[in-house]
Structure formats: structure tokens, C-alpha cells
Amino acid sequence: xxxxxxxxxxxxxxxxxxxxxxxxxxxxxxxxxxxxxxxxxxxxxxxxxxxxxxxxxxxxxxxxxxxxxxxxxxxxxxxxxxxxxxxxxxxxxxxxxxxxxxxxxxxxxxxxxxxxxxxxxxxxxxxxxxxxxxxxxxxxxxxxxxxxxxxxxxxxxxxxxxxxxxxxxxxxxxxxxxxxxxxxxxxxxxxxxxxxx
Length: 197
Description:
Elements: H1 2-18, E1 22-37, E2 48-49, E3 51-63, E4 68-85, E5 88-105, E6 111-124, E7 132-143, E8 148-157, E9 160-161, H2 166-169, E10 175-191
Antiparallel strand pairs: 1-3, 1-10, 2-4, 3-4, 4-5, 5-6, 6-7, 7-8, 8-10, 9-10
């Protein structure tokens, strides 16, 4: 939690230091899929099932023009999967700090489209996963008012190798990807032009 606090604080220092025109907090629902490939018979199709979780964090946006902007975010995102063992289902949490860096296109004031990379660091989770994660984000946001917005985003993670012992991998070389669909609501704490404009 300390890392999350300082990351959010760092984002708001960006707002005041560089005269950002928009910044706030956001949170919403994650629909998570843990995708595994190259596993052969090591994992069955039922081993990793989708789960519903959450994300929360902050964002900062600065405009290049009336139609283009960049945006950075700091998010705590709970991802993972449902692991079925015999007749029991175990909810496995993968807790990440994520830093999306997005290019924003605003055709009209009401709608914004976004695309860009998302870096991630695994705070807690499974030992066989990499500490780092990289995804490509694609989404849209609707500016409900000067204060509130709501959006949809799809985050497709790049493949990483599982860190399994040779005895555990049984000759296979499995990889995994985090795939997350997000629905969120944001609240603008700052939504003003820079003082020199």
C-alpha cells in the first residue's frame, strides 16, 4: 500500500509541476483471463478460469491540441484466475502496480479514444510468474461532465515464460499472458487549463 500511495502522490506532483489540464482518480471492474500456451498436456483447459476483480488509481492528462493529448496513470490492479482443484475452486490473486502511458484522440469533447503501452510490476502473486508485465491498451472514455467520466479498456498482455523447474515443466516451455477488460468511472480533481494560457 505504501508503494501505491507514493505512486499516486507522484502523479499529482506531475499535475502541479507541469501544469496539466486534467487529473483525478479512477476505479472499476476487471474481467480477467489468464492465457496459457505451449503447455502441452501440462495444464488442462480447465486449470485457469476467468475471474472478476477490480482496479483503482490516478491519472494525469495534458493536451497537445484540441484533439490530441497524452495521459499517464498509476493503477493498483488485481488480476488473476480461478484455479480448479478436484471439485474446489481457488481464487488466485495477482496484484500489480500498472503504469499505462497513453496517446489520446478527442474527436469531440464528449468522447476520447486511447491507445498505448502499459507497464506492470507484480507486487504479490505466484512464484512461477515474472515480476514484470507489459501490455497494449486500447479503450474509449466518455466525459459525462466536467467532473465525471466513464470508460472501457482492453489490456492485452505480452507473453512471458513461466518460471518452472525442468522437472515440473515435463519438457514443455509454457508461456502466459494477462488479458483484462476494464470498466471504470473517473473523477476529475483538476480540469483546468494551465495558468499561462
